[in-house]
Specification:
By secondary structure, the protein is α/β, with parallel strands linked by helices. It has 13 helices and ten strands. The chain has a single domain, classed as P-loop containing nucleotide triphosphate hydrolases (Rossmann fold, 3-Layer(aba) Sandwich), CATH 3.40.50.300. Strands 3-4-2-5-1-6-7-8 form an eight-stranded mixed β-sheet, sandwiched between helices. Helix 9 links the parallel strand 6 and strand 7. Helix 1 crosses helix 13 and helix 7 packs across helix 8. The longest helix is centred in the middle third of the chain and has 21 residues.
Length: about 280
């Protein structure tokens, strides 16, 4: 089963970065050391975990100067590693075109960086449909799609489904996907209506786990934290643990590591942790 998972939606504000951050932290709680790839020029994930000062320290150097991904990996506080983003990633579409060589480059780079290591990889995708987001899909073959519980997000999910179907003609295989309902508020009738419509439209591809509106989830990024170091007993922490368990138990995502890489979890002080090698 694949170890790589892209988190993608063409609509912003649906919990994409929050999901990458907290799924990664949930893996670290199991003693694993995931690789988190920030492929969004907005660099929100990087700003939380390990901001970099220039494009030369980020994934842009992989595209512009052929820097090996292994040279760009940075440790983060809960025992993961990060491939950081920088706003210069915006240049990738215009500088390098959209041919198969550039679209397969990320997959090839990850293959080289993780040679012989079955390690969980999470990719925080750019919300625009271009080289960066397409590269993540080419590199993983499966996508987790967060959808916030509002009408416009539902409309965007239906558009994204059409996009994925069109891409399947290009890659000549089915792109496996799961839809995740986020910002779910049990007190709002619309949340339940959106959940019912998603279930009718996507069936078993809709995750049973739902990510509720949570103060802890909203606060933790500003503290440089994941939910487990900020509010480990909160509803948000339980929701992401349930999501991870569902993705793994259903066979959608493989997270077991075959190497000696394990997570060394630090505190929530904003200082970067280290990924230990045993």
């Amino acid at each position: 089963m694949p170890t790589r998972l892209a988190i993608f939606n063409q609509k912003g504000g649906v919990g994409k970065t929050t999901t990458v951050l907290n799924l990664g932290a949930a893996l670290a709680r199991r003693g694993l050391a995931p690789l988190m790839v920030d492929l969004d020029p907005q660099a929100h994930l990087s700003s939380i975990l390990h901001p970099v000062g220039s494009g030369a320290e980020s994934l842009f150097a992989f595209y512009s100067d052929s820097r090996p991904l292994a040279d760009l990996m940075l440790p983060v506080g809960f025992g993961a590693q990060l491939l950081p983003a920088h706003p210069e990633l915006l240049k990738v579409d215009t500088l390098f075109g959209k041919g198969p060589d550039i679209l397969n480059l990320l997959r090839q780079g990850l293959d080289a960086a993780l040679a012989g290591v079955r390690r969980p990889v999470l990719i925080d995708c750019c919300p625009m449909l271009g080289v960066l987001s397409l590269s993540s899909i080419f590199a993983t073959g499966r996508v987790l799609i967060p959808i916030s519980a509002d009408f416009l997000a539902l409309k965007g999910a239906l558009q994204l489904e059409n996009t994925l179907r069109a891409l399947e003609h290009v890659v000549k295989k089915r792109i496996e996907r799961r839809y995740l309902l986020t910002r779910f508020d049990t007190r709002r009738r619309m949340s339940h209506e959106i959940a019912a419509q998603l279930a009718e439209r996507f069936g078993a591809e809709l995750c049973e786990a739902r990510i509720a509106e949570s103060v802890g989830l909203a606060e933790s990024p500003s503290l440089g934290c994941d939910i487990y170091r900020h509010a480990p007993q909160s509803r948000g922490a339980k929701d992401y643990e349930q999501l991870l368990e569902e993705l793994v138990s259903s066979g959608f995502w493989e997270v077991e590591e075959s190497s000696g890489v394990r997570a060394a979890i630090g505190d929530c002080s904003g200082s970067e942790g280290q990924a230990a090698i045993s």
